[in-house]
Amino acid sequence: MHITVVPASPKTGQAAIRSLLADASNPAVRGYYRDLAKVPAEFKANPRFEAVQGDVEDAASLDFTGSDAVLNITPPLYDERDIIAHARLVSENVKAAVKLAESVKRLVLLSSVGAQYDHGTGEILTNHEAEALLHDAAPEVVFVRCAYFMENWGMALETLPAGFFFTTLTPLDYSLPMIAVQDIGSTCAAQLLATGTALPSRPHVFELHGPRAYTSADVQRAFEEVLGKSVEMRPVEKAGLDGFYAAVFPPGVAAHFAEMNRSYLEGGILYEDPRPTPGEKKFGKTELVEVVRQMLGA
Ligand SMILES: NC(=O)c1ccc[n+]([C@@H]2O[C@H](COP(=O)([O-])OP(=O)(O)OC[C@H]3O[C@@H](n4cnc5c(N)ncnc54)[C@H](OP(=O)(O)O)[C@@H]3O)[C@@H](O)[C@H]2O)c1
Predict the structure, then answer these.
(1) Among 45, 57, 74, 159, which residue is least crowded by beta carbons within 10 Å?
(2) DSSP calls for 176-233
(3) Is 53 exposed, middle or buried (CB count within 10 Å of its CB: 0-12, 13-18, 19+)?
(4) Which atom of ligand 1 is closest in space to residue 56's alpha carbon?
(5) What fold characterizes domain 2-148+179-209+274-284?
(6) What is the β-pairing status of strands 49-53 and 69-73?
(7) Name one Pfam family in it (predicted).
(8) 4, 5, 12, 281, best to mutate for ligand 1 pocket (most atoms within 8 Å of CB)
(9) What does the domain layout of the chain look like in residue ranges?
């Protein structure tokens, strides 16, 4: 089996490659990097891994010839370009490369919970755009709609030395499904390695959650358990979200992040979820406290 991961440098792409290279079926893996200096040493050392230079913004740089399956990730954009137009461009480029390489039987897209909605979800609209373009890109298509990444709490690393962290998940006892990146990697790897086995539909779509949903108070407990000391939680209420994100991102990006955040709080479209993803959900095994331990290097 030959599998391409494009782009390969996102943390989810890295996790998928790690799972693929560890699999007993010994697949060959090709990863696309816009900057080859980003290739991790652990992959370089593996004879079944090939790193190639390519940018999803440049169709001519993508050649999937010989691959049986492709894992595609829509890279986030943190500048003032139109994120929807950008998602369309990179998805069109990947789709064209899949079609050109007649060998590709399965495309797996790393997507998001809420990607079925065309409004009200902020940054998740990039995943919506990618799904709209890629639903028929290959004979077999899988959309893995991931819940909130546990690793998002890594933003707390900046303030924890001062004894506190900000949370935009309110009320503090409201629980949200969360998933560890390593579980996203192993789930995507399993979908890629199953290329050629019949799927119930095209696209085959499922949500990927962690073992349970977590509240902000659970996050605080995880930090306290790993650090062995009390940690203060500073809630950012719904009305403060625009200002909170504007302090760290350019204005356009901040507006999308604030809208995405509001979408899963009470009253938001993902909270209401009027058109839920059909079928069974999948669940990762990794608990939040394990991810916190890894992020804090404890
Ligand atoms: N965070 C969440 O809670 C969440 C939940 C569900 C779904 N998602 C989705 O997950 C995806 C993000 O995955 P992630 O967190 O793994 O990403 P990430 O770690 O933030 O990585 C972004 C990467 O994209 C690469 N990149 C950016 N533009 C590129 C280009 N034009 N060509 C090639 N590579 C490019 C960057 O490469 P360099 O190393 O070269 O800079 C960077 O490594 C997004 O589609 C997001 O919508 C996120």
Answers:
(1) 45
(2) EEEE-HHHHHHHHHHHHHTTTS--SSSSEEEEEE-SSEE-HHHHHHHHHHHHTS--EE
(3) exposed
(4) 32
(5) Rossmann fold (3.40.50)
(6) unpaired
(7) NAD_binding_10
(8) 12
(9) 2-148+179-209+274-284
Query: What is the residue-level pLDDT of the chain in tens, covering all 298 positions?
Result: 999 999 999 999 999 999 999 999 999 999 999 999 999 999 999 999 999 999 999 999 999 999 999 999 999 999 999 999 999 999 999 999 999 999 999 999 999 999 999 999 999 999 999 999 999 999 999 999 999 999 999 999 999 999 999 999 999 999 999 999 999 999 999 999 999 999 999 999 999 999 999 999 999 999 999 999 999 999 999 999 999 999 999 999 999 999 999 999 999 999 999 999 999 999 999 999 999 999 999 8
- The protein residue with its alpha carbon nearest to ligand 1, atom 42, reads 10
Q: List strand residue ranges (DSSP E) for the chain, in order.
A: 2-6, 28-33, 49-53, 69-73, 106-112, 140-146, 148-149, 164-167, 176-179, 204-209, 213-214, 232-235, 282-283
Q: Are 131 and 111 in contact (CB under 8 A)?
A: yes
Centre of ligand 1 from the C-alpha of residue 258, in Å: 18
